[in-house]
Design a protein that fits this description.
11 helices, single chain, globular, mainly alpha
């Protein structure tokens, strides 16, 4: 195994661990957000008028722990998704560098590589993503297990929302494009103030975090209608939690979900829950990157130690 492969595994492992920890910390917010986004009712008939109503329902019914329903599946999905994404991105980047004989990668090529890694991740983890969404949007205390969720329908239904998931791989592309544009403007402004002949400026940690939050928010606003449609397609049917659960409901499609939002909530319905989505997304990204940076060095040392142990053990076995 080459050192490059080890670096890819180290990046993937630390990214996956960071994703699991950030998912666990923010999971109650994520559950409230998912249940709020999944509800489509006419004005005056909503069960949840605002995001806090979901939390109040859990507290008033003594189901606070149900805010964590589906956490195990979500963490499994997050771990696999981040591992596949980081490893896939490193793998595609290595192929690109070998093919073109360069260490530097342009912005456009980088976005294509990131989108390719994101598409692979979406395809591999879609059944887990669908199952965790159904668990989160089930009535409090009545969520089913992972296998029950996956086996109650066809395998095609387990991939509900895959098309939108592939479409949403554009989200990071928008984010990084906006980030680069804002970063360049900020650095150009600093350079003009410093005067000609001065050395190029670099972003401070706070500026980088602020620009990252702004760019992620812009990307989320632009792709939010697709995000909400995905949640609604994957959400547990209300009939599954009521007495009518034996009645087969028609499968949700993108067109049927768009029509339901338009008829019952109007144009603003496509952005219902946007504030919660931005809050959760920005906090999640910040926590993931912070945790990943803190544990990357430790992960690298552990992987090297394991590799050395395997090499020594293999040498001893050959010497016998």
């Amino acid at each position: 195994m080459s050192s490059i492969d080890l670096e890819s595994i180290s990046e993937a492992t630390s990214g996956a661990i960071g994703a699991v920890l950030s998912t666990t910390i923010l999971y109650p917010l994520d559950t409230c957000k998912a249940k709020y986004q999944a509800e489509v009712r006419s004005h005056g008939q909503q069960k949840y008028r605002k995001l806090s109503d979901v939390l109040l329902e859990a507290v008033s019914n003594g189901k606070v722990l149900s805010l964590y329903q589906g956490l195990g599946t979500k963490n499994l999905q997050s771990f696999i998704a981040q591992f596949v994404y980081f490893y896939g991105y490193s793998y595609f980047k290595r192929i690109y560098q070998v093919k073109y004989g360069t260490k530097s990668i342009g912005t456009k090529a980088n976005l294509i590589l990131a989108a390719s890694a994101g598409a692979c991740t979406a395809i591999i983890t879609q059944p887990l993503d669908t199952a965790s969404s159904r668990m989160q949007t089930s009535a409090f205390g009545r969520s089913k297990g992972l296998w029950a969720m996956l086996s109650e329908g066809s395998w095609i239904e387990a991939f509900d929302g895959l098309g939108i998931s592939l479409l949403l791989t554009s989200n990071p592309a928008i984010q990084y494009t906006v980030f680069d544009q804002l970063k360049q403007r900020l650095l150009d402004g600093k350079l003009k103030k410093a005067g000609k002949g001065s050395s190029p400026e670099s972003l401070s940690a706070f500026s980088a975090f602020l620009l990252g939050a702004i760019s992620k928010s812009i990307a989320t606003v632009l792709t939010y209608p697709a995000i909400r449609c995905k949640v609604m397609i994957q959400a547990a049917d209300s009939s599954e939690d009521d007495t009518s659960k034996n009645r087969k409901k028609p499968r949700k499609t993108i067109l049927s979900v768009l029509d339901a939002i338009w008829r019952r909530e109007g144009a603003l319905g496509f952005f219902k829950g946007l504030q919660a989505q931005i809050l959760k997304t920005v906090l999640s990204s910040a926590l993931l990157l912070m945790i990943k940076e803190k544990i990357t060095a430790t992960t690298w040392v552990l992987i090297l130690a394991i590799r050395r142990y395997l090499v020594v053990t293999q040498g001893r076995l050959k010497g016998r």
